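Honest question from a wet-lab person: if I give you the sequences of every part of a complex, can you actually get the arrangement of the whole thing, not just the pieces? Trying it with mine:
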Amino acid sequence: MAKQYDLVVVGGGTSGLEAAKTAAENGLKVALLERKSHPARVYRACAQMFLMNMDSFYNERMYFSREKQKWVFPVNNFSVTYTGGYREFYATHFIAPNAEDRIEIGDYEKNASGAGIAAVVFDKEALLNGLYEEGLKAGVAFFLERNVIDVRNTAGGVEVITSSGEKLVGTFCIAADGINSRVARRTGLNRDRVFLFTSGSVSYYITGVHFDRSEMICMGNAFDHEGNLGAVHFCMLPSVYRNDEYWLYIAGDEKLNFFINRSAFSKWFKNVEVTHKRCAVINAWSPAPEPFKNNILFVGDSCWFAEAENTGALLSGHKAAHAVCKALHTGQPNRDGVLDYITWWKRNWPETHDYKDFLCYPVFFRIFTEDELNYLHNIITQKLFWSLNPFNLYGHIMRGIQPHLERIKKERPTLAEKLATFTPERAIAAMKPATRLGFPAY
Amino acid sequence: MAKKYDLIVVGGGTSGLEAAKTAAENGLAVAVLERKTNPAIIQRSCAQMFLMNMDSFYNECMYFCRDTKKWIFPVNNFSVNYAGTYREFYGCHFIAPNAEDRIEIGDYEKNAAGQGIPAVVFDKGALLGGLFEEGKKAGVRYYLERNVINARTSAQGVEILTSTGERFVGTFCIAADGANSRLARVLGLNRDRVFCNTGRAISYYITGVKFDRSEAIFLGLCPEPGGRGTFPFSMLPSVYREDEYWLYIPNQERFEFFTQSSPFKKWFHNVQVTHKRCAVINNWSPAKEPFKDNVVFVGDSCWFAEAENTGALLSGHKAAHAVCNALHSGKPDREGIMDYITWWQRNWAETHDYKEFLCYPVFNRLFTEEEHNYLHRIVTQKLPWTMNPFKLYERVMIGIQPHMEKIKQERPALAQKIALFKPEMAITMLKPATRAGYPNY
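Yes, you can. This is the full assembly:
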């Protein structure tokens, strides 16, 4: 006989733990299934960032209260307790392939001298552990080392089936199983989504990094002239674990080697030591039409285009839990009951965050030559307004280019032509080779 | 030198305490100024009701979680701790002047048998005491026995002055000073509002009440002692004692008539008054927006009575978060708290028309005693549950509708009155009361 719950949460990451804890604190009978032995051990690559309230993300403007040790989400009326450390950083720099020229988003110097906190890196394990402990206290039944392989609709709601044959039934289910959501696949949600690409990457935590203005996130492409690696994309930011440590996201050991030893960027590195590494393979899909199917609410990355990020994970987990509480307590255990969540998600996620805009920056190196990229990074000398919302970055760069278009037309007519005809839709087209190489989970 | 805070809350009632606690828990420096010695001691009349989630109020659908002892507001993502007791009730009955016929809203029998909890009465003292203690823990500075007499905008924000000459400065102020808000008056908010009437009444907590289906709220009309017209009363179970009821009635003379000489006297036997509470309130139309000069208005302070405790908690909580957002995103101004203004306009003013609230209270002026008896008798079907006072008039009208043909035949004059009545007329019909009122412009 399957155990019956008000809510079964699949996945004990940021979004799932927040959802389970919130629902249990509001009196629901909640089970959470998680594959790992301990939800707070983080194995997958994660930048562990929060974009703070100098900008908004999903229309939320979060901040940290040091005194109360809480992340506060003032637009959505809640807060999340956090006793871990964090490290502020001050800007986003797009670095040219020559490792010299850069497009600056945010005013590094002003922010570094206290004008505001643009963003932070935080300790995700501390966050997850806090949520887990709070969930235990609130009475969440945690089922660890459970691999959910299927979900089915039954008279009692949603039946969740694990690889060892266990069955749990919930009136509602929350799918918090991340970017490669099996629940999204099994319910057919992915058939209404556009598959974009499969991406594999490794996060290296490294020491031995030396460069100015290091308290920022920088990203760019290094071009391999001698070998056959082509354009190597990287993203680097300070680590929360150690002061002298950095987080470097790059697609594997071979590219890391090239990047720190042979590329134009090798001047940044001396005696590099890899402290530890984490990996991730992700399937990127366009967002689902709505975050709901057959009494399953989808939260975080499970129905979204990467990245919900930790902000979106907490927001959607919290909101979905409250929607389930309302649905059960108003006698509407169905789509009508959770309409608040569906409406909120649509308004604050797909209607304000276009995944095609997100894709634009990563495909720049496919559209522009190395020389053109150097030129573009060189010509934008003004500092652009702060943002680290990945859905806004492309817009920021385009606005940064705008004042220089006349000059570009004179000096580089082909580049001007490329810029004039570039649209977010073309980013999708430029992704086609990567799409063909991917492993979609329909 | 005035003390400087992020937020000064004027008034330590339901809305003010919730606002102060929430803002302090989110890291703001908060002061509360309250006139009383202890915020948790209730002196003014209050029905102490929460409408539960069989219906919505300000688009919220709240419920109570017994396990974790919290009122949950699932639409607005928060909850409020409550260690006190409460008492469920099952229906809302409109009672005719003959003390017999009634219009039933909600299915008393079904709800009493466990189908749902339409509404509860709760212990407001326990709610406020809890919020007060949580506020203390979060670092709220309470200034008790302070009578706020004025608010001014200064370069630093809002300066609040008390009757003893103390000054407090906050980047923002939250006005939680109730239906007769002094801040609304001194900031000129009332000049854009329509004054409706001054209401006076006494809440009697009484024992010695005997009648069937007692776990309901009764809104009734009692014949006037002199025989001309009727006066309204409300009665509902008390949260304090099983055998106690709360009776809201205009004054002592009518209380005596009601319990001893009126057709309702059969409900009462050896009535004892346990205690009583009073309230005089000025009713105004809602303000255009709940904001002026960095003062954010919550609860009854800018609304038409009743925000009720539901609205008080909601608006206090939302306003506090809006102030947090404004201060932390470097917009200490109207734009910074736009979320609150928009939320209030959408969920209060745009979905709750105060003119409809006024309709039921003016029915006693519109219909004769005999017509009231007839109307209460003819609506025999049970109407769908609500206790949202802004919807009651509409419910009654929906109840009358299927009987209009019969009314036209049997009582053409009454049918005519019903057909012509519009919520706008409630304002006109209140004119004599408006003239007799004491508006605080």
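Two things worth pointing out. The mean pLDDT of chain A is 94. The first strand of chain A starts at residue 3 and ends at 10.
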